[in-house]
Amino acid sequence: MSNSNLFLYIGKPIKNEYGRTIGKVASFGLTPSGKFDAVFIEFGDGQFSKHTMENLRFNGAEVTFISKIKNQAGILCDQIPLIWRKDQALKDLNEKRKINPELYQELHNSFQSVLTQLKKDAQVIIDEAAIEIERCREEILSLSYAIANLEIEHEIGKVDEENYKSAFALLQETLKRATSEKTDFESTKSKVSSVLLGDVEIPQKSKTYAEHVNDAPKLPEPPVVVYVKEIGKAGI
Q1: N or C: which end of the chain has fewer CB within 10 A?
Q2: Mean pLDDT across the stretch 11-38?
Q3: Strand 48-51's sheet: what is its strand order?
Q4: End-to-end CA distance of the chain
Q5: Entry pTM
Q6: Are residues 20 and 74 in the same domain?
């Protein structure tokens, strides 16, 4: 998009991926060369916050805010397995003596350093997703109570049919969004957790003698051979 087109979005409402309006576009941040690198959002409570352009999707007149957690989770789910595979390939090259030992150690330490930081970032995402899941769970519970109370009041005639239908539709739509949001965060948390487990639970190439013995298939017990000596009649 051209600069003029993006500036036309100032003041436009911003919705999250589930259709909930969260604020509006306040302004943009640009680099000295004129490239958009940030967006300033005014949220519903009046607070301002700066976000990267990757957090927004512009589609016609609509502006959609993409969860920071989902964005970072996607990046981590790509980077962690990639760095791990590179480190494994490096180890294979070292075992085949195709790389200088000193260079191997330097590169291996570099990969391990990156992996350590990525795993820390992944744990932060898991913790943040867990907080969002709990928030959604509490919202779903509150909405369920609200629907139940609406049904009771309507049943005893304190809420007329028109207001009942309007309130019920609003609560059901909000409940649907909260449930979808919770499902998304649970999926994101699960994916990042799986990547971490896959990185940690690396099959070991070498085992102790005792582990090899324990892992070896059990052989059947040798058959018992009974020798029977025939005794002639005379010996009876």
Answers
A1: C
A2: 90
A3: 48-51, 36-43, 21-30, 13-16, 62-65, 56-59
A4: 111
A5: 0.70
A6: no
Asked if 36 and 29 count as a contact pair (C-beta separation under 8 A), the reply is yes
Q: What is the pLDDT of residues 74-113, one digit of tens each?
A: 999 999 999 999 999 999 999 999 999 999 999 999 999 9
Question: Which residue has tokens 């239908």?
Answer: 165
Q: What is the CATH number of the domain that holds 45?
A: 3.90.50.10
Cα–Cα dist 142/136, whole Å: 10
Confidence check: pLDDT of 147 > 80: yes
Name residues whose C-beta falls within 8 Å of residue 68's C-beta, 6 or more positions apart in sequence.
51, 55
Nearest to 88 by CA among 75, 73, 104, 101: 104
Do 101 and 10 reside in the same domain of the chain?
no
By residue range, what is the domain housing residue 114?
Answer: 70-199
CA distances from 151 to 45, 161, 168 (A): 31, 11, 9
Q: Does a structural domain hold residue 172?
A: yes
Please tell me the distance from the alpha carbon of residue 79 to that of residue 161, in angstroms, as a whole number: 55
Give tens-digit pLDDT for 113-126.
999 999 999 999 99
| CA distance linking residue 134 with residue 227, whole number of Å | 74
| Per-residue CA distances from 188 to 56, 72, 80, 195 (Å) | 19, 10, 15, 11
Give the closest residue to 132 by CA, choosing from 67, 79, 218: 67
Domain count within the chain: 2
- Pairing label, strands 62-65, 13-16: parallel
Question: Is there a single domain that holds both residue 56 and residue 96?
Answer: no
Same domain? 56 vs 90: no
